[in-house]
Specification:
By secondary structure, the protein is of the alpha+beta class. The protein has a domain of about 150 residues: Glutamine synthetase, N-terminal domain (Ubiquitin-like (UB roll), Roll), CATH 3.10.20.70. Strands 9, 13, 15, 16, 17, 20 and 21 form a seven-stranded mixed sheet that branches. Strands 1, 2, 5, 6, 7 and 8 form a six-stranded mixed sheet that branches. Strands 11-12-10-14 form a four-stranded antiparallel sheet. The model has no long low-confidence stretch (mean pLDDT about 90). The protein is built from 23 helices and 21 strands. The longest helix has about 55 residues. It starts with a helix and ends with a helix.
Length: about 725
């Protein structure tokens, strides 16, 4: 029988039943019912005001104060009619989390009455503390002023709790001196930079009617569910989001029986609750299923404009975690909460397009004839080759390091997978003659009642960090707990830079008398000659690829965040962001400082937890068990029974390893080197290996100590008890 605490948790779980939620409403009534959408605005605003708002959203520009006042008044009336007493400016600081500043609609009057008030000025601008959030030295602790500003392109919405409703207004967050302190501001800037360059290239291709070009995103979210009764007994899960100790169970994921299996009833009820909330908030949740590891699941949305998709992704994480508590679960968004089984990612499906030319990364049926697609795709290839280390840096976190390069995640070497059809087309371009492209064909299943299946022209490659998947690229290396804003900022910015390069090259060719087709082909061939090394369609996990990528193709392998984050300080990266108007050198430096500090803090918190758990929970249990064994052996010897000391010897050896490594880890924690880069290297090269050796000892002890004495819920219990 497990220890008393674990046994009590097991009893609690056995008594749990699926939690009934609110009555199911028809989809038409449910969808975006808590969103101050364009449709809601159209009903609430005068025609002139609504058209002005539409124009600002579509084309950009400043919002007139009279228009802002009208929108604020209509927004307040809509929200208060639904029960809202407060509004919140919602912003996204450099923590990967969501921040909110709540203010009441009430305004006291001199006669003791109060009225509800919400003006255009209050809608457009708020003032949270600008120094209490990570800022990388931009703001001193005594310089507190910061501003939030309404992002009109992302709709306001209502967040409902059992005791009230709050109007939430998506905003940017900047310092008093104007620097971006958030993730939304650079995302909006990167999209604007990409739009400028994309429109320029489209004009060179002969287009005249060009709508604003926007990037799109659909972020697949993987997560684990663990019963909260177990999590309460695991300080590592509570404070670090991952298990620092835990022996592997006899059965893990080796049978491949969890992936796409029947969803457990209690989990499905949780998922349905999440989806209803997301639908009310206008989040287009599209897919749900079991993931590969036991206890792991996925929710995936339909793609949206990147800015809105980013806000919706933050909402999705918030709703997942809050709803899990209602159902007796804890939702784990850490990239590797359990050793030995698949971790969680957030595959970012990214493309660009507009209302007039459509998806600019759609190859169509004959990609070899689609000059527009080929040039935009070539710009992506060049961008990834030139700035692959940046793409690695924007997914660099202490938690994602545990996942990258393992069997469920792409390696830390950034390459591009195009699929057999497109790779062949671009190889033809490199060879100097473009003759055609293959088609997918069809597949007969050999059963009359089953239809022939249309095959895609290329397979998928799950080992690629950046793979083309039909009409978009999938950035597979993004971590499950991350905001997607950082990766999107990088993708938009490197694409803007590469489109600018493509346009410059075409103009140079046209000035020499070349036709547009000749100029475009010359640019495409030069792209492949100079940057084709980044294209790879083989097994990204293989050691052969790692050697080839570095030694023959000149790609960088940055295995840890300590290796990757300093990329943000390279002059070429600083110049890229400054040239495209996305991040100033000061803003980029602040992000390096913040992310480096977060890396160090995350590992040091884990190291302190390792010491505390090892010394206060594991060591006492082992010593007590050894004492019991010693008494038992002494009794056997007194009775003349042959005593086997092998178990005691194993326990003593592992316990000595535990004690010795804990002493070493404590000393290493107390003596970090000076300088943030050296400190990161110390965490990666010294603290993490020492923590792993302590884990090896503890996991070995777990397999030897009486289960009735072991204090921590086991992997078997946490992963398989629903």
């Amino acid at each position: 029988m497990p220890s008393p605490q674990r046994f009590a948790a097991l009893q609690t779980i056995q008594r749990r039943r699926p939690v009934a939620t609110a009555a199911i409403a028809p989809f038409g009534e449910l969808w975006a019912s808590d969103v101050f959408s364009l449709a809601t605005m159209k009903e609430a605003l005068p025609g002139r005001i609504f058209k002005s708002v539409q124009r600002t959203i579509r084309e950009g520009g400043k919002l007139d104060l009279s228009v802002a006042n009208a929108v604020a008044d209509a927004m307040k009336d809509w929200a208060t009619s639904r029960g809202a007493l407060y509004y919140a400016h919602v912003f996204y600081p450099l923590t990967n989390s969501t921040a909110e500043k709540h203010d009441g609609f009430i305004s006291p009057k001199s006669d003791g009455r109060v009225i509800t008030e919400f003006t255009g000025k209050l809608l457009v601008q708020g003032e949270p503390d600008g120094s209490s959030f990570p800022n990388g030295g931009i703001r001193s602790t005594f310089e507190a002023r910061g501003y939030t500003a309404w992002d009109i392109t992302s709709p306001a919405y209502l967040m409902q709790t059992p005791n009230g409703v709050t109007l939430c207004i998506p905003t940017v967050f900047v310092s008093w001196t104007g620097e971006a302190l958030d993730k939304k501001t650079p995302l909006l800037r990167s999209n604007a930079a990409m739009n400028r360059q994309a429109q320029r290239l489209l004009r060179l291709l002969g287009e005249s009617d060009i709508a604003p070009v926007n990037s799109s995103c659909g972020a697949e979210q993987e997560y684990f569910l663990v019963d909260s009764a177990f999590v309460a007994l695991r300080p590592d899960l509570l404070l670090a989001g991952r298990t620092l100790f835990g022996a592997p169970p006899a059965k893990g994921q080796q049978f491949d029986d969890h992936y796409f299996g029947a969803i457990p009833e209690r989990v499905q009820v949780f998922m349905q609750d999440v989806e209803r909330q997301l639908y009310r908030l206008g989040v287009p949740a599209k897919t749900r299923h079991n993931e590969v590891a036991p206890g792991q699941f996925e929710i995936a949305p339909y793609f949206e404009a990147a800015n809105v998709a980013t806000d919706h992704q933050q909402l999705t994480m918030t709703v997942l975690k809050a709803t899990a508590k209602k159902h007796g679960f804890t939702c784990l968004l850490h990239e590797k909460p359990f050793a030995g089984i698949n971790g969680s990612g957030k595959h970012v499906n990214w493309s660009i397009g507009n209302a007039t030319q459509g998806n600019l990364l759609d190859p169509g049926q004959t990609p070899h004839d689609n000059l527009q697609f080929l040039l935009f795709c070539a710009a992506v290839i060049r961008g990834v080759h030139c700035y692959g280390p940046l793409m690695r840096a924007v997914i660099a976190t202490a938690s994602n390091d545990h996942r990258l390069g393992a069997n469920e995640a792409p390696p830390a070497i950034i390459s591009v997978y195009l699929g057999s059809q497109l790779e062949d087309v671009f190889n033809q371009i490199r060879a100097g003659q473009l003759t055609g492209s293959s088609s997918g064909g069809s597949m007969s299943l050999g059963v009359d009642t089953l239809p022939d299946l249309t095959k895609d022209p290329g397979d998928r490659n799950r080992t690629s960090p950046f793979a083309f998947t039909g009409n978009r690229f999938e950035f597979r290396a993004v971590g499950s707990g991350q905001s997607v804003a950082g990766p999107l900022v990088a993708l938009n910015t490197i694409l803007a830079d590469s489109i600018q390069w493509v346009a410059d090259q075409i103009e140079d060719q046209l000035n020499t008398g070349s036709s547009l087709e000749q100029a475009a082909f010359a640019v495409l061939k030069r792209t492949m000659d100079d940057h084709g090394a980044v294209i790879f369609g083989g097994d990204g996990y293989s050691s052969a690829w790692h050697r080839m990528a570095v030694e023959e193709r000149g790609l960088e392998n940055l295995p840890t965040s300590a290796d990757a984050l300093p990329v943000l300080q390279r002059p070429v990266i600083r110049n890229l962001f400054e040239r495209q108007g996305v991040l100033s050198p000061l803003e980029l430096e602040s992000r390096y400082e913040v992310y480096a500090e977060q890396y160090v803090l995350a590992i040091e918190v884990e190291a302190k937890l390792v010491l505390r758990l090892a010394r206060t929970q594991v060591y006492p249990v082992v010593m007590a068990y050894l004492d019991n064994l010693a008494r038992s052996l002494k009794s056997q010897e007194a009775l003349g029974i042959g005593a086997d000391r092998s178990l005691v010897d194993q326990l003593v050896a592992l316990n000595q390893q535990l004690v010795g490594q804990c002493t070493g880890l404590e000393q290493a924690l107390q003596n970090p080197p000076h300088g943030i880069e050296a400190h990161m290297a110390h965490c990666a090269q010294t603290l993490l290996p020492m923590m792993l050796r302590i884990r090896e000892a503890v996991d070995g002890l777990e397999l030897l100590v009486d289960d009735a004495d072991w204090p921590l819920p086991s992997y078997q219990e946490m992963l398989f008890m629903r």
